[in-house]
Amino acid sequence: MTSLDRTGPQNGQDPTAIRIAGVSKTYGTYEVLKGIDVEVARGEVVVICGPSGSGKSTLIRTINRLEEINSGAITFDGQNIHAPMKTRDLNRLRSRIGFVFQSFNLFPHLSVVDNVSMSPIRVKGVSRDVAHDKALLLLDRVGLADKATAYPGQLSGGQQQRVAIARALAMEPPVMLFDEPTSALDPEMVGEVLAVMKSLAKDGMTMLCVTHEMGFARDVADRIWFIDAGEIIEKATPEEFFTHPRHPRAQRFLADLR
Ligand code: ADP
Ligand code: MG
Fold this sequence. Notes:
- Residues 18-254 form the ABC transporter domain.
- Belongs to the ABC transporter superfamily.
- This is Amino acid ABC transporter ATP-binding protein.
- By secondary structure, the chain is an alpha/beta fold.
- 37% of the residues lie in helices and 24% in strands.
- The strands form two sheets. Strands 6-7-8-3-9-10 form a six-stranded mixed sheet, with helices on both faces.
- The structure holds adenosine-5'-diphosphate (ADP) and magnesium ion.
């Protein structure tokens, strides 16, 4: 696998990658996020867990503005993500925050290499040749060098999700967000996707991962946020979280997983 150049904090750079301050969001009268205050340091890997319907997807979708917020602020590299801005600026901002969905979302009519090289060509104006060469390196990195000319429908779920990760990486985002990237996969394919995520983490990528894969959380996360009913009620290291969860609801959540 080729290595990406991802470095930690550099001289003079704000060590905080993402700041979420007092973020609330309602759907009608239903308050789905209730004053979220958290920060993610550069190079940090955060696993977000919590019961179904607790607001995990909503929270990470607000970070690249797939969801609007009602109050509070989210800054990324010092930039207010929810400030009014032109569509072009929003798209540019979004391209710097990679997002991997539960349901891959590849373009079925495009080959794997075209899926991976499309955004650099369209958004960044990279030439087709350069974008393809880069895509091939990324496909090699996720273990799919031999699938460049295949179409998504010819791949397994695990392979498609690895293509989706390569596609997000093609924009060289300093941050990657994952929303249950292995939940739609057959159990035998979960490991290959987690292995790619693990290698990214090892290279120093800043990552927020919503996942129920507690083995991954234990091995890879620097911090765990436990969210329940729209509030982050526990922030802990994996060691603290798995051995002494403080909040009764976190204790119950972990007991139910076993
Ligand atoms: P999680 O990812 O933790 O399962 P979500 O963030 O998807 O939770 O959803 C949190 C709550 O918000 C759920 O009760 C869900 O039904 C509700 N919700 C999510 N999206 C919408 C929407 N577009 N309109 C209304 N309610 C929504
Ligand atoms: Mg969700």
